[in-house]
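Consider this record:
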Amino acid sequence: MGALYAAVAAVDPRIEKVDGQVYYSGAAKTIDVVVLISGDEPVSTDALTAMLVAIRDNTSDAIETATIIARDAEDDDKIVDLSPAIAGLPNDITPLWDGGLTLSRVDLDKL
């Protein structure tokens, strides 16, 4: 997971830490990636897309879904709102957003 963490962290200098876990959700192999990000500026669609591409490119095709959660580096209980960045993602993907953004491998492959 070290290469994955490094690739995600390289996307934005405001990313202070990356963590994650791989697990099964039912029969689907899933990865959750959590980034701690500093500053008050919103995450851009370009940065979010680059993080998702880094996840896609640094995980096995056996990963069927990926979730990314951004948290405030100063208060890691506070979730960073990614909805403005999600709004700019391509129209042909189906993002699930409930505080974390979840995409299927099919959608990751479209980025």
